[in-house]
Design goal:
The protein is globular. By secondary structure, it is of the alpha+beta class. The strands form 3 sheets. Strands 5, 6, 7, 8, 9, 12, 13, 14 and 15 form a 9-stranded mixed sheet that branches. The chain has a 4-stranded antiparallel sheet with strand order 1-4-2-3. A two-stranded antiparallel sheet has the order 10-11. Helix content is 21%, strand content 28%.
């Protein structure tokens, strides 16, 4: 996906969002309306409906698909992919390490959507062909709970819920050292790293990013931290804790100690999407799902507790 930031020019003042964005981007009003209904259009930081009115000087943020980069979904059984919940509208899974959420250029490994297809599960047809039903993502190297939409209604409702930040996303991470204070908030903008395109960094003028944390267990050289995300930027937890000099254990990309990583048997960051809670798209009831730690993270904790 690509994100476009567009100031509203004076000439579009008072115009409907679908009509104004169609002029700005050279797209049809139907396409723009679909983007708005999927929660992909923000006006001054808030989701905008297709019939909302533009105001000169406002800031539009539009997430656009990149159709030229589409790749085929391959139905392939994924070892370790666990289904935690399945109904007519959603499927909730525990994603194993080394699995991407959907296919992308340059990724030849297993995917969640491919694993669901191999399991015979029908998912929503909304979204780009290779990421149909996907309403949020986890890094390939991050394990844990995630939801995929099965019905078109669920896709629309959940996509909007993630955009409006009404979803409760809880992570556990083992970070190096001992954060001080033991409970706090990291509020720092994130964007592409200025020198390394594969990384992200805290950058002046980046996208607003907020991480709340609380230490729940302290060890000699590290801490187990409970994390709540207010925003959901790419690599947000990894970037934020690296920026405050407490990188996730095992996260060599973001400055973790390789000696500690080896001693804990880690070949990736100790980061796990522990819980996910949201209003069920079928009836609005609040539902909560939890994914247990995988074997490699459990082993690392055992080593830390034994020291």
């Amino acid at each position: 996906m690509s994100v476009r930031m567009l100031p509203v020019p004076d000439g579009l003042d008072g115009m409907r969002v679908d009509a104004g964005l169609a002029k700005l981007l050279g797209l049809s009003r139907t396409v723009v309306a679909e983007l708005a209904e999927s929660g992909e259009v923000l006006l001054d930081g808030r989701p905008a409906g297709k019939s909302d009115r533009l105001a000169a000087g406002g800031l539009l943020e539009v997430t656009l698909p990149e159709p030229d980069n589409r790749v085929e979904v391959v139905a392939e059984s994924v070892e370790g992919l666990r289904i935690l919940h399945d109904d007519d509208d959603i499927v909730v899974v525990s994603k194993p390490v080394g699995v991407a959420v959907h296919p992308s250029p340059g990724w030849a490994g297993p995917t969640v959507v491919g694993g669901l297809a191999a399991a015979g599960l029908r998912i929503s047809t909304s979204g780009a062909a290779e990421r149909q039903g996907v309403v949020h993502r986890l890094d390939a190297g991050t394990t844990g709970v995630m939801v995929v939409a099965k019905s078109e209604h669920a896709y629309t409702v959940l996509k909007r819920a993630f955009k409006e930040r009404t979803v409760d996303k809880g992570y556990h991470a083992v970070v190096q050292g001992h954060p001080d204070p033991t409970r706090g908030t990291i509020d720092a903008p994130i964007d592409r790293h200025p020198r390394h395109d594969y990384k992200f960094a805290v950058v002046a003028g980046g996208r607003p990013s907020v991480t709340h944390y609380e230490v729940i267990e302290a060890f000699r050289a590290a801490s187990l931290v409970d994390i709540k995300l207010e925003t959901g930027r790419t690599h947000q937890i990894r970037v934020h804790f690296s920026a405050v000099r407490h990188p996730c254990a095992g996260d060599l990309t973001y400055g973790a100690d390789p000696v500690l990583a080896r001693s804990l048997g880690l070949t990736r960051q100790w980061l796990h999407a522990r819980t996910l809670a949201f209003a069920h798209p079928a009836d609005g009831r609040w539902v909560t799902f939890e994914a247990p730690y995988p074997e490699d993270l459990t082993h690392a904790l055992d080593v830390l507790r034994a020291e």
